[in-house]
Amino acid sequence: MMPAYRIGLESISREYDRIECPLEGEVPPWLSGTLFRNGPGRFAVGDQDLTHWFDGLAMLRRFRIESGTVTVSNRFLRSTEYTHVTEKQQLRCDQFATSAPSSIVGRLRGLVDPELTDNASISIDRIGTDPVAITETPKAVGFDPETLETTETISPNDGVSTTGSLGHPHYDFDRETVVNMGVRFGRQNAYVLFERSAESAIRRPIASLPVDRPAYFHSFGLTDQFAILLESPLRLNPLSLLSGRSFIDSYSWDNDRKSNLVVVDRHAGEHIGRFPVTPCFVFHHVNAFEHGDEIVVDLIAFEDDSVIDSLSLGQLREGDIPPPGGDLRRYRLSVSTETVDEETLLSGPLEFPAVNYRQVSTRPYQHLYAATHSEGHQPESNHTTQPTGLLNALVKFDLDTGSKTLWSEPGVYPGEPVFVARNPPNTPGAADSPEDDGVVLSVALDTDAEQSVLVVLDAASFSELARAELPTVFPFGFHGQWYPSESRFHRSMP
Ligand SMILES: [Fe+2]
User: Fold this and answer.
1) Residue 52 has what DSSP assignment?
2) Which residue from 257, 219, 218 is spatially nearest to 235, judged by alpha carbons?
3) Residues 477/443, Cβ–Cβ less than 8 Å
4) Is 180 exposed, middle or buried (0-12, 13-18, 19+ CB in 10 A)?
5) Would you place residue 488 in the very low, low, confident or very high pLDDT band (cuts 50, 70, 90)?
């Protein structure tokens, strides 16, 4: 039987412009700002079905919240890719798991000077106060914050040469810089760490680490002094890029390798070391900080890369998949003794981790919010069958006490939780207010009502305060940012 959430994996075409949403409950009057979210909106090109959830054409979502009301807009990003697809009915560039048509000559040329997609569907960033859609290439696409109309594709031409760029840049609040990593493919593959001023698209290289077979990676950890990358055994086979395989099919899991924590001193630009840990795969780091001699790195760890296949549209729509989530894992790395302790802080399935980023990024923290599966948190004796299908709950986890609080409702599938502080600290990292004083926003699919909703949870009690009914089903999305009204705060999320 097809899962009820399948309607969240179908293409939509209609675009809405600032529609006021009917509300249940009350949105706190202090909550004033804009939540931009990104994700796919269309899963076919001409008569070709796209392969993977990550392949869909980018569609922006905008939730404007003020004076207790919610308005919603959605608009496809008119990227170069989107325009080409609309005119030619075929892809222009390779996506994550679907290749564009091209000849072997084109592929050879592409190795030297690859044509990279600007189908920026992963998340949102800012250059100054202008929002941009971002993806795993260095190309960002600007859009109007009121109308969502696409402005321009920004292809940085600066001192940083990368083929890839992570959809999860970090923000250094002290230095007002955006720090990110990428991979450079070529005669000498490398991981590249770079940063830019919050006001500028021009990037500055910090460090470049040669690597024979780069790992696939999607996010990284940041402390005051270090950048940390979890390098999994999912490694690139460089010749596969010539074979017509898709981007991700050019990677394979190497059973002979461990995972490594790759540590870079981001001030000195020095590679500190590569520290082996148990093999695992990771999409999302949670937080990282320094504690005495140790670097503490928290992330969502999967046993292997099978989750990538689970997130293909074919398997997702069938629904007979393990819930696509991993465990909350903590590493304590001592650089001086070159030892790493590993500990699972919370068993999964967990994904889309979020914290009070402005207050706790690069610092010890207490509260984690994430998507999870309601049946993944029953006492062991209640496990009659293993849960299957998409994540259908949100969890708040207290790292100090080990307690967890679940929010779920039958037939409702929440996306990424976004924490919004009631009183964001003026000084980054200051604890003027309790860490969980605020709300958690999540766009969810209500399969019974056959519509998407924006739920507003009280972050302290994790109970629902309000939900806004959207005019249609928005396909399941990925990530976003909350920007408070009249504030220059640059980031709400990693
Ligand atoms: Fe992500």
Assistant:
1) B
2) 257
3) yes
4) buried
5) low
For the stretch 267-288, pLDDT in tens is 999 999 999 999 999 999 999 9
Distance between Cα 104 and ligand 1 center (Å):
31
The pLDDT of residue 384 is 61
At 339, the pLDDT band (50, 70, 90 cuts) reads very high
Dig out the tokens for 289 from the structure: 């900080």
Find the 123 Cα to ligand 1 centroid distance in Å. Answer: 8
pTM of the model: 0.95
- Going from the Cα of 122 to the center of ligand 1, the distance in angstroms, rounded, reads 7
Q: How confident is the model at residue 383 (pLDDT cuts 50, 70, 90)?
A: low
Centre of ligand 1 to C-alpha 348, Å, is 17
**Measured distance CA(354)–CA(362) in Å, rounded:** 13
Distance CA 438, CA 460 (A): 7
Q: How far is CA 449 from CA 372, 406, 446, in A?
A: 21, 22, 6
Integer Cα distance of 255 and 232 in angstroms: 10
Looking at residue 392, what is its pLDDT? 97
Dist CA 158 CA 140 (whole Å):
14
Cα(340) to ligand 1 centroid in Å equals: 25
Q: How far is the CA of 96 from the centre of ligand 1 (A)?
A: 13
- Output the CA 375–ligand 1 centroid distance in Å: 23
Contact 475, 415 (CB under 8 A): no
Please provide residue 211's backbone torsions phi and psi, each rounded to the nearest 5 degrees: -150, 140
What is the C-alpha to C-alpha distance for residues 131 and 125, in angstroms, rounded to an integer? Answer: 6
CB 475 within 8 A of CB 41: yes
Q: Where are the domains of the chain?
A: 4-484
166-177 pLDDT, tens digit each: 999 999 999 999
CATH: 1.10.10, 2.130.10, 3.30.160, 3.30.500. Which one for 4-484?
2.130.10
CA atoms within 13 A on the CB side of 330: 15
Q: For 89-118, what is each residue's pLDDT tens digit?
A: 888 888 888 888 875 555 555 555 667 889
Q: How much is the mean pLDDT over the chain?
A: 92
* 234: phi then psi, degrees, rounded to nearest 5: -80, 100
116 CA to centre of ligand 1 in angstroms? 19
Backbone CA torsion sign across 198, 203, 209, 212: positive
The Cβ of residue 37 has, within 10 Å, a number of other Cβ atoms equal to 26
Between the CA of 275 and the centroid of ligand 1 the distance, in Å, is: 24
Where residue 39 falls (left for φ over 0; alpha for ψ -120 to 50; beta otherwise) is: left
